[in-house]
Amino acid sequence: MKVIIDPDSGFCFGVIKAVETAEQTLKGGEQLYGLGEMVHNEAELERLENLGLKTISIEQFSELKGATVLLRAHGEPPSTYQKALENSIRLIDATCPIVKRLQEEIKKVWQKEKDQGVQLIIFGKASHAEAIGLNGQIDKKGIIIENLDDLRLVDPQRPAHLFSQTTMDAVKFEKIALKLQEMYSETGQDLIIHKSFCRQVSNRTKSIQEFAASVDVLFFAAGRNSSNGKVLFQTAKNINKRTFFISGIQDIDFQKVGIDWGKIETIGISGATSTPPWLMHEIAQFIENTFGLT
Fold first, then answer.
1. pLDDT at position 258, please?
2. What pLDDT digit, counting tens, does each position of 64-97 carry?
3. According to the model, what pLDDT value does residue 180 have?
4. Annotated catalytic residue 44
5. Coil, helix or strand for 294?
6. Which numeric CATH code is attached to 98-197?
């Protein structure tokens, strides 16, 4: 039996930047607050909090005065920066460069076309920090949709732009874009599609499919709140039915899954863009120790 860690899994560069920024700041010894979950991974959050990072909500942020706050990779709406200015809060901005560029793009479109009745449609999760940040760039006037049913909120008699939260499922985005194009072909109004994905994230769809097909069993590690994790897990599950979602070694029960481990030659370990590499190595070590492979 061999345990293999997916070489294309783990932190994307945006999360790497945010985590490294947090670590460097904490080394200085000052109290550092993190606005929202720095990463959607419970194990990594616990590690950062043990280093001194204190995670706070937007409500708690609004009550701070003169503190130092780290903004995560997901990005924030303009109101966060304004509140920091009012309360003399020092911001350390770790917004992912790709998210930052998308914020600037959607804001530019809004400022140019809002007086023409344009609709800005955002394919994303309404409660997700990135979607909230994007919507904040356009005075919270965006139409946030998660599925085809939500397209009932769109008026095809008015021009529209379609954007996407950078970590959403590219296949679902294409289905939504196609449906919108059908709706707009009947009215003749303008519709512009912006494929605003993070390529590093979207490329993992193909790589996880290939990796899932190459192993007998796959343990996919991710945080319960990771949108990217849910998408990649389901992608892998569609290829390899013996794919199991875990958040850490505590979720692994070799007896419960009903597999004859004596017939298994390869066990794969993969993760989301918010899954820390150290966690995947910890899982690999646990499996190897369990089966006496070390």
1. 87
2. 999 999 999 999 999 999 999 999 999 999 999 9
3. 98
4. no
5. coil
6. 3.40.1010.20
CA distance 55 to 41: 13
Phi, psi (degrees; rounded to nearest 5) at 220: -105, 115
Mean pLDDT rounded to a whole number for the chain:
95
Report the predicted TM-score, pTM, of the whole model to 2 decimal places: 0.89
User: In the CATH hierarchy, which top-level class contains the domain 13-96?
Assistant: alpha beta
Say which of 59, 130, 146, 182 is annotated catalytic.
130
Q: Is the dihedral of CA 203, 208, 211, 213 positive or negative?
A: negative
Residue recorded with tokens 């796959």:
218
Which residue ranges make up each domain of the chain? Answer: 2-9+201-290, 13-96, 98-197
Same fold, 2-9+201-290 and 98-197: yes
Domain 2-9+201-290 coded CATH 3.40.1010.20: yes
Please give the pLDDT value at position 140: 97
Residues 6+ apart with CB under 8 A from 204: 8, 9, 232, 273
